[in-house]
Amino acid sequence: MELLKLYWLPDTPCFDPPLPADCSLRPFDPQKDLPDWYACLRGGALIDDCATAADAFAREIEAIPDIDPARDVLFLERGGEAVGTVTAFVYADSNIGDVHMVGVREDCRGQGLAKYLIAAAQRMLRERNVRFVSLTTGESRPAALRAYLRAGFLPVDYDYRMQTRWEALLRKFDIDSIQMLYEDGTPFKMLYKDKTDPKVRIGVLGAGRGMTIMEYCRAGDNAELVAVCDRDPACLDDARERFGDGVAYYTDFDAFLSHEMDLVVLANYANAHAPLAIRALNAGKNVFSELLPVQTMQEAVALVEAVERSGKLYIYGENCCFMPAVRAMRKQFRSGKMGAFQYGEGEYMHNCENDWHHHSHSDPNHWRNTMTAFYYCTHSIGPLIHVSGLRPVSVVGFEAPFNRKMYRMGAKAGPFGMEVITLENGAFLKSLHGVGPVKYSLWYHCEGDLGVLESARNIQNAGGVQTLYVNCDSREGADDGAITSLPLTDGLSEYAEGFDHGGADYYLLYHACEAVKGNKQAEIIDVYEAMDMFLPGLFAYFSVLAGNTPQAIPDLRDPAQRERWRNDRRCTDPAVAGDQLLPSYSKGNPEIPQEIYDGLRKKLEADWAKKKEEKKQS
Prior knowledge:
Elements: E1 4-8, E2 23-27, H1 34-41, H2 53-62, H3 69-72, E3 73-78, E4 81-91, E5 96-104, H4 114-127, E6 133-137, H5 142-150, E7 154-155, H6 162-173, E8 177-181, E9 187-192, E10 200-205, H7 211-219, E11 223-229, H8 233-243, E12 248-250, H9 253-257, E13 263-266, H10 273-282, E14 286-289, H11 297-310, E15 314-316, H12 324-334, E16 341-349, H13 356-359, H14 367-370, H15 378-388, E17 392-399, H16 404-409, E18 416-423, E19 428-434, E20 441-448, E21 451-455, E22 468-472, E23 484-486, H17 493-496, H18 504-516, H19 527-545, E24 551-552, H20 559-562, H21 574-577, H22 594-617
């Protein structure tokens, strides 16, 4: 579990008790004080795993370049003996103070001596004009936590479930309320020991894929399910059986939209997300959309403008961005570990043949059977965009030739496509994805000028996106990196167990609800980033149709760029494209006889009958 973080703001009061008559403060003497420093900190988890005082000092003090021991390490003496120590230093690159390694000698603990050390550290750091003072600790040190809170330190919402953990501590310490801060030191919200934030009221459209979202509402502590909509009464009956009559059930979308709710989740067909998202935004609802965000440029422009006009949140549910390796990759890159972004690769090669008759309902006109190889592109492109934070500016597309697997599936596109994408800083990405490859592959790789971050290869049975390998240098040109793997658990991991896509679905909904509640620390994919993830795939197919020529990708953040695309309906959906209909396969739609679909339909009906019998017996 992540440590708790607290800040003290130098322009606020602190508890500054006068030293007892027999106590004094003095600086560290490198020549003689190492044994005393070690004695004051023994019995604490931070240094008990070190064999010697020198080892502990090297790791905890000398390893931090901004610490000058003679200036920053203090001792509290009583009767001429060192009974406590604290280190107070400043991070030069951020001008943030840090209270570090507070310890009282074991035979003197429980006597209230730590407060003098904390007050001394606050005075030192205030005199150095820091932005604020930071420290970390955990629930396992309640006495230390009490002392920090009395000294004026405030809790920081810097990681998952911090509000929940701090509310429990307020109840334990019988503290009525306290201000919580963001990680940048600005105010976030007031926390109360006896008050719990209202949960985000969620309505779900689509009782099939939407079942995961409904389960989150039962498991998460920041959401509640209030309404479900599906045009199939049998699906609604299944939902009612699981979630009871305290939830409202609708077959009509407009009636569903009139229900009191804070967030509408669109888990319907991928080719129908954009129109319903726009209707929900126009009705004053925040929107969480499953994949894909849009299927045409006309829809893209309309969706962006609906978000801007409504002032409501649009949150894109690209779950691959929240898989363990990608979460860690983003954190490592954003911390500077990899240096400047230079190159990335993403693969989402999904052999769907065994389940395709379920996905497509064995219907030759189902959107899955008519989509291009580039349609479902954000699983491979999205994580690279989310890690780098860079906008795509151009793309070249390549399409694999139609094969027997796609014929057997009744799908009319190439089995997979590839995009080579140039980013705004000149870096580039290679994305490979499709539903008809011979083997499954979910894999991500990023390179910077300091090193490489890479998830494990599925084909090596090495953990896939549950494992991240890091090989980064300490500085450019050092070539001193070693391949290591990172632990990928965090404050939400235990809660996300059992949720789909390696727990990613839990993370998506957690962040979505936090964003709706106004937490600016919430990690969401907004409408502009969603376009940055999808448009490279759409324009890659335009590239293929134009002989693999580079295509510029518009930036829909810029209203001036929208006009050219406002009436562009090019896609493979006849109901949307009209006279701008594109072929599903660049060389022309293949002829797939009806008997293929008839055979798939028989297989689907046999599967349904088997499932129905199993349910009846259970």
